[in-house]
Amino acid sequence: MVLVDSHPPYTGTILRVRGRLELKCQLDSPDVSLMHKAISGTFATLRSQVKSESCVLTVCDSPVIIWPNKGVNATPEEITPNALCEDIHLWIQTDEQESFGKKSGKKKNKKSSAVSVINLNLMMEVTKPGPLSAPILSRTLQSSHFLSATLPMDCVVRTSCNDTIKDACERLVEALTHQLFEMEKVTLQHTKGTTLLVPEPLHFLLPEPKGLVTVVYPAGVPDGQLETQRKELHQQFELPDDRPFFRRANAYHFPNEPYRDGYLRNPHLLLTHPTLDDGKVYLVQGIYSYHHYMQDRMDDNGWGCAYRSLQTICSWFQQQGYVERSVPTHKEIQQALVDVGDKQTSFVGSRQWIGSIEVQAVLNQLLGVTSKIMFVSQGSELASKGRELANHFLTEGTPIMIGGGVLAHTILGVAWSETTGQIRYLILDPHYTGAEDLQLITDKGWCGWKGPDFWDQTAYYNLCLPQKPKLI
Q1: Residue among 145, 253, 431, 456 flagged as catalytic
Q2: Does the keyword Cytoplasm apply (predicted)?
């Protein structure tokens, strides 16, 4: 089920190879043991193909083609087995470049982040050199079942700055072979009769120094039915049993890979932390989506800020794997408040505001998440809440919804000095109405650090502090 990459987790280059292998298996007998034997034989054939000279790796957005089992033969000729893996970057086409080649890519393609990714495609040569024999057709009449499935191969290996292309290819072939073994185990375990569940590889980035771990799950089986497997993984990697690490939502998102839903993730990472005397920074832990006015073809300008803050909080619980349900819409939020008896039926479809107490009720109703409420009689008192807010981000790490007067915001962190009492708040503003422009959002302060004067000094505020459930 598991493939562990033991290289240092946050440096170097990730080689990620993806491709599809066809699993085709004829079952001549309904006997379970014979069926399993036939399926295992098909997987053995696929492993042989991966190790054969017909296996080909092509580097995405480049002219580079590598035959890993043919003496690490490659094209262009400058790609040699002893060349460094990092040199492949020089051949990869970027948006700014108009042609392939070392000269055009050498400086523009150096990565600014600690981790860079080289994507490769797994392919198989179907033609062979030399004379070919004439095809022979035969016909056999018999009753049998034919199983067919497409295996979504997805392997990663990390390389250091000294690893050669030959080293990387050996490890990639080993990883592909190992993944086929794991896929075979999952397939046999979850095959019922002639129904085949496709094995699904997922990558998870665990806390240092464990690094990237690949797990194969049966596609179509919900996370709720895989708790036993997750418990085993938590024990194997000595992980705490009070938070998810191996749910599908925890799968590692590779750098520069766009999110399909269009929402921005963690815009605060672009910001520079404020400097306070003897101060420390306490931040939201994990990944969230930025929800704001006018998204989802919904005109909520002027009344939907608390709804959007709630959606950001819900996205945090969804993307950390605590819940499987999607982020609720405005109508679903309103219906939840009707269901708990907080609002009348006419509330659904209205443009009425909600506050921190309603946010608490919806989180409990839709997500089963409990929250603490902090009451502040006037905005000037928020400057004295540094210890409570710092402790929340240290222990819970969830976004906080704050409502006061007619405005709602999301607090993502605080910078606080225990000795001087100085404090700054990391604010995500749901009142933004523009496009998903990360630079604009951070430059204009829609996501940014604010001082105590950001709050209305005379207005009262309620803060909703969601608590993490304890589950795996």
Answers
A1: 431
A2: no
Q: How many CB atoms lie within 10 A of CB 35?
A: 20
- CA dist., res. 143 & res. 462, Å (int): 70
- The token pair at 204 is 């998870």
pLDDT digits (tens, 9 = 90+) for 100-140: 444 344 333 443 445 789 999 999 988 777 777 788 888 87
Contacts (Cβ under 8 Å, ≥6 apart) of 12 = 115, 158, 159, 160, 161
Alpha carbons 390 and 367: distance in angstroms, whole number:
24
How do the domains of the chain map onto residue ranges?
13-93+115-126+144-250, 267-466
Query: Look-up: residue for tokens 């590779």?
Result: 254
Q: What sections of 152-265 are H helices per DSSP?
A: 165-190, 227-236
Choose the CATH number for 267-466 among 3.40.1120.10, 3.90.70.130, 3.30.240.20, 3.40.50.300: 3.90.70.130
Sign of CA dihedral 8, 112, 272, 445: negative
Vertex 341, ends 339 and 347: CA angle to 5°?
Answer: 75
Q: Are strands 12-27 and 115-124 parallel, antiparallel or unpaired?
A: parallel
Tokens of 359: 């946010």
Give how far Cα 207 sits from Cα of 211, 300, 320, Å: 7, 39, 14
**Which residue is catalytic, options 330, 429, 447, 464?**
429
- When pLDDT is averaged across residues 369-397 and rounded to a whole number, the result is 97
- The type of residue at 345 is T
Q: How confident is the model at residue 2 (pLDDT cuts 50, 70, 90)?
A: low
Residue type for position 351: R
Question: What tokens appear for 389 in the block?
Answer: 């807010």
Instruction: Give the sign of the dihedral formed by CA 374, CA 380, CA 386, CA 389.
Output: positive
Phi, psi of 17 (to 5 degrees): -110, 130
Please compute, for residue 277, the number of CA atoms within 13 A of its CA located in the half-sphere on the CB side: 4
In the residue annotation, 261 being an active-site residue is answered as: no
For residue 146, give Cα distances in angstroms to 188, 195, 398.
Answer: 16, 11, 50
In this prediction, residues 293-311 reach a mean pLDDT of: 97
Nearest to 354 by CA among 316, 290, 292, 403: 403
| Least confident window among 67-71, 189-193, 332-336 | 189-193
Report residue 348: phi and psi, to 5°.
Answer: -70, 125
Going by the DSSP 8-state scheme, the letter that residue 96 receives in this structure is: T
Rounded Cα distance between 14 and 85, Å, is: 10
The burial class, CB within 10 Å (0-12 / 13-18 / 19+), for 325 is: exposed
pTM listed for this prediction: 0.86
305 is catalytic: yes
